[in-house]
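Running low. Got one?
___
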Amino acid sequence: MADIDTGSSPFLRRAYDLTGPEDAAALYDEWAETYEADTAASMGYVGPAVAAGRLAELAPAPATVLDAGAGTGLVGVELARRGDYTVDGFDVSPAMLEKARATGHYRHVDVADLTARLPVADGTYDAVVCVGTLTEGHVGPEALAEFVRVTRPGGLVVATILDPIWEPKGYRAAVDALAEAGRADLREADEHPYRTAQDVTCRLVVLDVR
């Protein structure tokens, strides 16, 4: 595991050592009830606001957005503050998705394994946003190609990737491969705050889909 500050959270320490989708589902089902208090409140988790803010600047509402790794719906809430978006959510954890559904900001939420092919046709969405999922022990860089596949030409993929793993874990290489294949161009991969209480940063990766 990369040297990433997990604070005092036993859930976050476990999250960075997950062994696969079933392990992830079990952890996040267990964590769902206190997830937002443990992250947004206690850790200064600003990743959802950072990603939603940039998406809203580049793809104003109304736009149709897939929230890949929706969790409890923090991104959906942030997008709703910025416009009238149509948002669908995928996540591996049914308990987390129940929290997302309860926000009232999602058209549909469905259980899905983001390490596999998504149950969505090519070019379905104007944008895909993925926050907190392209990280240690979770979903690897191969998911970026799937996000591009389900985004229409001219659309956007906006994703947070923890800064310490951006290059070492192959995410930068995956982005370069998508560009070389003529599928997407890297607009930006700037460093942004992610968990402010721990001084953890992310790369906010924005891809222009061809």
Q: What stands out?
A: The chain has one domain: 10-209. The beta strands are 64-68, 86-91, 108-111, 125-134, 151-162, 184-195, 200-209. DSSP finds eight helices and seven strands in the chain.
